[in-house]
Design a protein that fits this description.
Helix content is 30%, strand content 21%. With 278 residues, it is of the alpha/beta class. The protein has one domain: NAD(P)-binding Rossmann-like Domain (Rossmann fold), CATH 3.40.50. The protein has an eight-stranded mixed sheet with strand order 4-3-2-5-6-7-9-10, sandwiched between helices. Strands 1-8 form a two-stranded parallel ribbon. The protein is globular, with a radius of gyration of 18 Å.
Length: 278
């Protein structure tokens, strides 16, 4: 499954000269994770979300993990995605859930279909992780996040041939507010940082390969996409989730990388950076 990617974040740096803000999350006794998309990036994400859920359980925090994907495993998925020959013809979400439940003793839910809704819960940290491959799917996630009024967090993952990005947030532009005493509980949602996630890319950009109608699996087969780019996206996403959920802290909330040049850039959690998205 292909995941949308846009240009690397401009004018950013890994280390910031500005004082970092402290992430302030309400106390939560439950974490609800919904992964939308179980393909190239999503299958690798699922394998990392299960240990995260297990770590939460060991800390006495309940974790509900739901995998959502409408597709069946095809032969072109083998190798790049975490599926085997025995999985051919079976629902991707169900295959991953069964395998991870057996490995970790969890109760991961599998849904064969498109993401329709995400519930939010009292005293819970609710998060949707997008590893989808089209504008309408991302626009629907954006709608759910806006309607939650900051309650639902969104981590979006995207990639192209050799580049990718992950971005975490929970409110649209104009809803950030100002940090109080160096604390922040709202971040710009991914479609604010990357408007092209939910809007058509200009024709000029299309000609430069910013978007392709081919799936990730087809792109791999034709040599148009790196075999490891999805794994890198998943690794960055899991790193952000680890800090966000387990450590309850963040230094950056968005990361972009380029495999060809071995480079990465990030948006730091500081007042100046957040003000640029207000």
């Amino acid at each position: 499954m292909k995941n949308k990617s846009v240009s690397p974040i401009p004018n950013t740096q890994y280390l910031t000269p500005n004082p970092l803000l402290s992430l302030h999350l309400p106390d939560f006794h439950r974490v609800s994770l919904t992964l939308a998309g179980c393909g190239g990036t999503g299958s690798h994400l699922a394998s990392g979300l299960a240990p995260l859920a297990l770590a939460l359980h060991e800390r006495g925090i309940a974790c509900d993990l739901r995998l959502v994907d409408p597709d069946l495993v095809e032969s072109k998925n083998l190798g790049r995605q975490l599926f085997a020959h025995a999985d051919l013809g079976r629902p991707k979400a169900a295959v991953l859930a069964h395998r991870l439940n057996a490995a970790y003793g969890l109760r991961i839910e599998a849904v064969q279909g498109k993401l329709e809704s995400v519930e939010t819960h009292k005293d819970a940290l609710d998060l949707v992780i997008g590893a989808v491959d089209n504008l309408p799917a991302r626009a629907h996630i954006e709608k759910l996040v806006v309607e939650s009024e900051g309650k639902l967090w969104w981590l979006d993952c995207g990639n192209e041939r050799e580049t990718g990005q992950v971005s975490l947030g929970n409110v649209p532009a104009g809803k950030l507010g100002k940090p109080q005493l160096g604390l922040i509980d709202r971040l710009p949602m991914p479609s604010v940082v990357y408007p092209d996630l939910v809007k058509p890319v200009a024709r000029a950009k299309k000609s430069k390969g910013m978007r392709s109608t081919a799936s990730c699996a087809d792109a791999i087969a034709s040599g148009d996409q790196s075999l490891v780019v999805n794994r890198m996206v998943a690794a960055w996403a899991l790193s952000l989730l680890h800090d966000f959920i387990l450590m309850r802290r963040l230094a950056v909330f968005s990361v972009a990388f380029n495999l060809r040049w071995g480079s990465s850039s990030a948006l730091a959690l500081d007042a100046k950076t957040l003000a640029s998205f207000a």
